Hints:
Blueprint: H1 3-18, H2 42-47, H3 50-72, H4 81-94, H5 96-128, H6 130-143, H7 152-159, H8 163-187, H9 191-199, H10 204-246, H11 251-260, H12 264-292
Amino acid sequence: MDAGGKAVSAAGDLTDVFERPEFVRETLDSTSFGVVEKPIPLWRRILQRRDVRKLLIILALGAIWQLYTIRLDKELLFPRLTSTLSALYDGVRSGDLLLRSWFSVKVLLQGYALGVVLATLLTIAAITSQVGNDLLETLTAMFNPLPGVALLPLAMLWFGLGNGALIFVLIHSVVWAVALNTHSGFKSVSPTLRMVGRNYGLTGFRYVWKILIPAAFPSILTGLKVSWAFAWRTLIASELVFGVTSSSGGLGWFIYENKNQLEIPSVFAGLFMVILIGLFMDAIVFRQIEQRTVRKWGMQA
């Protein structure tokens, strides 16, 4: 055999040595081996829900409250949870607690809306001119640390014993938080995004509406939530003082009135209602706004 034939024979031998034999894996029956993925128990799947965990925490706190007050046995100092829930039920059923709550919420919405409008005007002035920016920074530095309740005597002197005094202190509690957060959000909008808006020919109100507000909305929403909490606390504290002078008012006056009559379970029922309204606004209203805007736009995980 010639040299070429030997080379071909050697190449064929190497191919036989290194060629991988065919391998076909047989499909095994799933019952022939153990559990690969351990199933999650039902109780653990339930505990993975955040709402369930919060509900369990509330139930645990309620149980601690009930057990402690049973041991304390002093209803005038710290009523039992069952007494408080009974007073809450009676207040809701009679309609008195609901009317006082609506009175407070109605005043709060008026002051909140006016505060947001004033904050919007200040923010527009701040982002459109240097003088407006200096004005907003100066005013917020002066008045933001000032508690709204501290202005109540002056508000009562100016606006009398009416809702005007309450609305005035509510505006003060809302305007600075909303203006600061909105202005900060507008300033944090990236130059690239601003340039995109300009390239699309957006100017004036369309530029603000389509570029600045969506980009700054997380900060705006934070300002709205913070100012709501400020306003709600200020309103209840103001009603405690304001109700003494006018013998009328909302939840704050309901709490004060029942305290004077030593109806301590009703005092706790009024505080319960304050908490429930705050939870409703935070867990329902603001969360829905957040899910439909900030999370939908991918600005928050």
